[in-house]
Specification:
A hairpin with an 8-residue loop joins strand 9 and strand 10. The protein has helices at about 15-20, 20-25, 40-55, 60-80, 85-100, 110-120, 120-135, 160-175, 205-215, 250-255, 270-275, 325-340, 360-370, 395-400; strands at about 1-5, 30-35, 140, 180-185, 190, 195-200, 220-225, 245-250, 280, 290-295, 305-320, 345-350, 350-360, 375-390, 405-410, 415-420. Helix content is about 40%, strand content about 20%. It has two domains: about 1-225, 3-Layer(aba) Sandwich (Carbamate kinase), CATH 3.40.1160.10; about 305-420, VC0802-like, CATH 3.30.2130. It is α/β, with parallel strands linked by helices. The model has no long low-confidence stretch (mean pLDDT about 95). The radius of gyration is 23 Å and the shape is globular. The strands form three sheets. It has an eight-stranded mixed β-sheet with strand order 3-4-2-1-7-9-10-8, sandwiched between helices. Helix 3 (about 40-55) runs antiparallel to helix 6, helix 4 (about 60-80) packs antiparallel against helix 5 (about 85-100) and helix 5 (about 85-100) packs antiparallel against helix 7. It contains 14 helices and 16 strands. Bound molecules: adenosine-5'-diphosphate (ADP) and aspartyl phosphate (PHD). Adenosine-5'-diphosphate binds near residues 9 and 260.
């Protein structure tokens, strides 16, 4: 069995969805479970709906939600002929699920509402894709992954209950392959044991696909992208980026950890644990070989570049000149855990610690306030973090020229430079 994942970019327009049947027909007679993300930037649009609702702007939330509804109905109308009415009824059920909530007043945490609203994106996109494939003669079973993926109630970053999910996959998903060779379901979302919707962290559909792959012992997972494969840099930032035909799991987990946007960092572990290869293939030209990621070592890699903008440097200085030591570091990690931010770089000295983080304003503010009990705190925004794996002097010089260096960390394999 194979697991395919089509990301938001692969299903962001009528034209792109129309290419799906041709890709799937290249695998006749194979059992494939297809994980699909929300169309294009729908998740971002739904985030705005949830924010407006939570700030008490009900009319604005409903207006923004109407735009999401309209764009999905339009896409469905362009794609479907015979099955349009059945699909419209299914889409309207999901619209009602969200609107029922939007008409209420918020009484719980924002993260709870976020998940109830944002999960609709994947439910809509998969309904459209499934109906379109069926109408194109590709029989498939659509499932609501919230009936399968059991998670805890850590909304926006829910953790999967592997035991319950594994049992449901075996009992409720695999038997569906008796009906059709194809199953279509959502990435990124799950549900608690109380049937409350949850999400697994932004861009989490790659991870959903990897969990399925692990649980069914898939022969491989393929992520279909709008790029030729994994490249040594984001081709949008570096037009001369080159494809990396082969990589091992370690390299990719490091790249993802340092912020390469191409694969979600949590994706690799479920695959590595079962030795399942990950293929990254081009949705726009399926004949291209793409990238294969596996256990074997790969030599001679070029410098691999990750550039992250909107970085914040939080500088903590001990108030009474006492050493930062283990207590200060332990306190810092404790605070980072509490506000749920991952440090991209940490450097400590005798009486100070410097931490580089993604700019999530509310969380940074909470962190700075809490840290002010122990330290003098300074915050600098608008920085760029450059990471180069397998660097050489030339590439490092080229990418840091004309920039003011704030912080640098270097091993024989990786260099990170925080720059103004
Ligand atoms: N190292 C890299 N190799 C290839 N693409 C990359 C890399 N780093 C960032 N990207 C970006 O990832 C994009 C595809 O990811 P994304 O937009 O998240 O797709 P999807 O939503 O379909 O999963 C590409 O268009 C490319 O700009
Ligand atoms: N739709 C979700 C999940 C996801 O994985 O999307 P994509 O595959 O388009 O990165 C998000 O945007 O976060």
């Amino acid at each position: 069995m194979k697991i395919f994942k089509f990301g938001g970019a692969s299903v962001n327009s009528v034209d792109r969805i129309r290419q799906l049947p041709a890709i799937l027909r290249q695998y006749p007679g194979e059992k494939i479970l297809v994980v699909v993300s929300a169309m294009g930037k729908t998740t971002n649009a739904l985030e705005k709906v949830a924010e407006a609702f939570y700030e008490g702007h009900k009319e604005e939330a409903l207006r923004l939600f109407q735009q999401v509804k309209d764009s999905h109905l339009t896409t469905a109308k362009y794609l479907l002929v015979q099955n349009y009415l059945a699909l419209e009824a299914q889409l309207r059920d999901f619209f009602t699920e969200a609107e029922w909530l939007l008409h209420d007043k918020p009484v719980r945490d924002f993260d709870y509402y976020y998940d109830q609203v944002v999960c609709i994106g994947e439910l809509l996109s998969t309904s459209i894709v499934s109906a379109y494939l069926a109408e194109s003669g590709i029989g498939n079973q659509w499932i609501d992954v919230r009936d399968i993926f059991r998670t805890d109630a850590n909304f926006r970053d829910a953790v999967i209950d592997w035991e319950v999910t594994g049992r449901k996959v075996k009992e409720e998903v695999l038997p569906l392959f008796g009906e059709d060779d194809l199953i279509v379901t959502q990435g990124f979302i799950g549900a608690t044991s109380d049937n409350e919707s949850t999400t697994l962290g932004r861009e989490g559909s790659d991870y959903t696909a990897a969990v399925f792959a692990n649980l069914v012992d898939a022969e491989g997972q393929t992520i279909w992208k709008d790029v030729v494969g994994v490249m040594n840099a984001d081709p949008k930032q570096f037009p001369d980026a080159v494809i990396l035909p082969e990589l091992n799991y370690d390299e990719v987990i490091e790249m993802a950890y340092y912020g390469a946007q191409v694969i979600h960092p949590k994706t690799i572990k479920p695959l590595q644990n079962k030795g399942i290869p990950l293929y990254v293939k081009c949705f726009l030209d399926a004949s291209l070989p793409g990238t294969v990621i596996h256990n074997k070592s790969v030599h001679g890699l070029p410098p691999i570049i990750v550039l992250k903008h909107d970085q914040v440097l939080v500088q903590l200085h001990s108030t009474d000149f006492s050493f930062v030591g283990e207590t200060g570091m332990a306190r810092l990690y404790d605070l980072l855990g509490q506000v749920r931010v991952k440090p991209n770089l940490i450097q400590s000295g005798a009486v100070s610690i410097q931490v580089c983080l993604d700019d999530r304003p509310a969380r940074i503010e909470r962190l700075a306030l809490a840290a002010a009990d122990l330290f003098e705190v300074q915050v600098e925004r608008g920085l760029t973090l450059l990471t180069i794996r397998h660097y050489n002097a030339d590439v490092l010089q080229r990418l840091t020229a004309h920039r003011q260096e704030v912080l640098r960390q270097q091993t024989w394999e990786t260099v990170q430079v925080l720059m103004r």
